Automatic annotation (TrEMBL):
<feature type="domain" description="GFO/IDH/MocA-like oxidoreductase">
    <location>
        <begin position="148"/>
        <end position="280"/>
    </location>
</feature>
<dbReference type="GO" id="GO:0000166">
    <property type="term" value="F:nucleotide binding"/>
</dbReference>
<dbReference type="Pfam" id="PF22725">
    <property type="entry name" value="GFO_IDH_MocA_C3"/>
</dbReference>
<dbReference type="GO" id="GO:0016491">
    <property type="term" value="F:oxidoreductase activity"/>
</dbReference>
<dbReference type="InterPro" id="IPR000683">
    <property type="entry name" value="Gfo/Idh/MocA-like_OxRdtase_N"/>
</dbReference>
<dbReference type="InterPro" id="IPR050463">
    <property type="entry name" value="Gfo/Idh/MocA_oxidrdct_glycsds"/>
</dbReference>
<feature type="domain" description="Gfo/Idh/MocA-like oxidoreductase N-terminal">
    <location>
        <begin position="20"/>
        <end position="133"/>
    </location>
</feature>
<dbReference type="Pfam" id="PF01408">
    <property type="entry name" value="GFO_IDH_MocA"/>
</dbReference>
<keyword id="KW-0560">Oxidoreductase</keyword>
<comment type="similarity">
    <text>Belongs to the Gfo/Idh/MocA family.</text>
</comment>
<protein>
    <recommendedName>
        <fullName>Gfo/Idh/MocA-like oxidoreductase N-terminal domain-containing protein</fullName>
    </recommendedName>
</protein>
<dbReference type="InterPro" id="IPR055170">
    <property type="entry name" value="GFO_IDH_MocA-like_dom"/>
</dbReference>
<dbReference type="InterPro" id="IPR036291">
    <property type="entry name" value="NAD(P)-bd_dom_sf"/>
</dbReference>
């Protein structure tokens, strides 16, 4: 079956006009959001995986998806799947991503890339062996018009040399769910750092064009216990629900990040890049990017047409996959977060947690910059 799947995949590489067909590993975000959004973008969803076969079949039936699997190898080997979307728990990302790549499929993997940078490196190594396959992380905020406009303004030199980057993401995320789950276990890649922090770090780097080199971090767990579903018992949460970073940018400059999943009151989600001659503000609540000159006067503003940053980003990322025709070098995928970019983001999270544990400044293990 795997050989048949690879042969069919190679045959379709010569037919870019045919819609890319997606198999989704996971029945949460994958079924609730990706299935309808992917279809709207022009992708075909042809397979769904759940470890519970009956659950996979039920979702497939309800959503009109032709194939349901309870085997990762079977989904990845399916000849009617060109792209595998990995939307499984973080501690399974590496296993599932590598299975997809080895089966000859394009890869779109959810964030965070893996539980650790070392684990992410195994995905990067596998992708490097297969340059004809797309291998990207689902950092959809890169595909917003607003974030791309902000990046272009910084790259043009309009605000001068970058002095500092500030990000503030304050949300109430219900303690990462009402009941205890892997999201509350640090060893499994849980925490607000994995649920939201990786988006913030990636966005700061994407817009500013500067990677984080050193961090002083603090991670907190304010909601320390969560009830076990269907039981009177509680479990201790080991994953963070709040963290901060004060850091140094590669090549000079500073960065500060505050991410909370237990904030009360009005949500705030913004990234500010300050240069010698002005600044750029990305406001994800308004979904806008605004360029201010050195006197604080608005010089330019770009607004997204849709009100939800993550939903719009998911749609435009899917549209980019369609436009790419399955070619990793397509200009449509230029904004994409490569798996090596995802490994860098995880390196920052690893350094933040190590700094929080040790109370010391920690250098980020920076991989070579990704080439696109």
């Amino acid at each position: 079956l795997k050989a048949v799947g690879r042969a069919a995949f190679r045959a379709r590489e010569c037919s870019p006009s045919m819609p890319l067909r997606v198999g989704i590993i996971g029945t949460g975000w994958g079924c609730k959001v990706q299935v309808p959004v992917f279809r709207k973008a022009g992708l075909q969803v042809t397979a769904i995986y759940s470890r519970d076969k009956a659950k996979a079949e039920q979702f497939a039936s309800n959503l009109g998806v032709p194939h349901a699997f309870d085997s990762i190898d079977a989904l990845c080997g399916c000849p009617e799947v060109d792209v595998v979307s990995v939307v499984s728990p973080t501690f399974l990302h590496a296993e599932h991503a590598i299975a997809a790549l080895r089966a000859g499929k394009h890869l779109l993997s959810d964030k965070p890339t893996a539980v650790s940078a070392d684990e992410a490196a195994t995905i990067v190594a596998e992708a490097a062996k297969r340059p004809s396959q797309i291998a990207i992380i689902d950092h959809e905020l890169r595909f917003l018009k607003a974030t791309q406009a902000a990046r272009d303004i910084v790259a043009s030199g309009a605000i001068g040399a970058v002095r500092h980057v500030n990000a503030q993401f304050l949300l109430h995320m219900g303690g990462l769910g009402k009941n205890f789950s892997w999201w509350h276990e640090r060893s499994k890649g849980g925490g607000v750092s994995g649920a939201l922090g990786v988006h913030v770090i990636d966005l700061c780097t994407f817009v500013s064009g500067r990677r984080i080199a050193k961090v002083a971090g603090q991670a907190n767990t304010f909601i320390k216990e969560k009830p076990v579903r269907g039981s009177s018992e509680v479990q201790v949460a080991t994953a963070d629900d709040f963290f901060t970073i004060i850091g140094q940018l590669e090549g000079g400059g500073a960065i500060s990040i505050v991410v909370s999943g237990v904030s009360q009151g009005k949500p705030m989600r913004s990234v500010v890049v300050v240069g010698e001659q002005g600044s750029v503000v990305v406001d994800l609540d308004a979904v806008t990017a605004t360029h201010y000159d050195a006197k604080g006067k608005e010089a330019a503003k770009v607004a997204e047409s849709a009100p939800d940053a993550f939903m719009q980003g998911t749609l435009t990322l899917a549209e980019a996959l369609v436009a790419s025709g399955g070619s990793p070098g397509s200009p449509a995928l230029a904004p994409a977060c490569l798996v090596s970019d995802g490994m860098y983001v995880q390196s920052v999270i690893d350094a933040m947690l190590k700094s929080s544990d040790s109370g010391s400044v920690v250098s980020v293990a920076l991989p070579p910059p990704a080439s696109k």
